[in-house]
Amino acid sequence: MSIVIRAGRTALGRRELAGELEMTWDTFRRLKPYDVDDFPAPISSEGSLVLLWDLDQVTAYRAGGPQPALPAADSDADLLDRREAAALLDVKPRSFDGYKSDPGLANHLVVVCGADHWPRAAVRAYGAARGTMSAPSGRPTGSGDMVPRDLLPGRIAELLDADPAVTAAHVVDVLGIAAPTARKRLLQERAERIAALMRSEPGLEAERAADRLGYPPAVRRIALKAAQELYDNH
To answer: Which tens digits make up the pLDDT trace of 207-216?
Structure first.
């Protein structure tokens, strides 16, 4: 599996891919056209819960022509997901989750199809500014009340990546945190993602952004209000 979103290339998530293939979401989920042997390989990092494909390769596949190769050389403008960024910093992904709120990374966040990414240059600069980093000891993932507070945003993000409709009750079961904390963290993450998508696509309304991100109506009302406030205050 290829890694990173190469500079100058456009990535498609599942919903964007369905649109590119002119399929309804239900048909796309049923047929899973990306499982065909000659379909372009995902460009997501290995183990990623959010699959991404290269638009140029998908377009060439649909036209029946040869698929353009991805650039082999690294670029400062490549976009890295949390696993790729962690690898560049030589730490574990769960350790990187503790760094994401630092302005050196947070100010460069790029949300691609609902998944957080950072430019390679920003990750390198962050690493250089901090010097040699080592992963915090942390505690076993999903071990009840044992998830460190600074790692919660990353764990919540992973659960949302896997299922945009994830419930607070499921978060409580998986992470062992209190229900009010689970609700608050889910609201914050959903609102931040909606606002980020609105900023990346000027003119996109909050309701439409929530739909693009796959958030069910039951969780939208408060998230939409919080997202609009984040957007207006940006």
So the answer is: 988 888 888 8
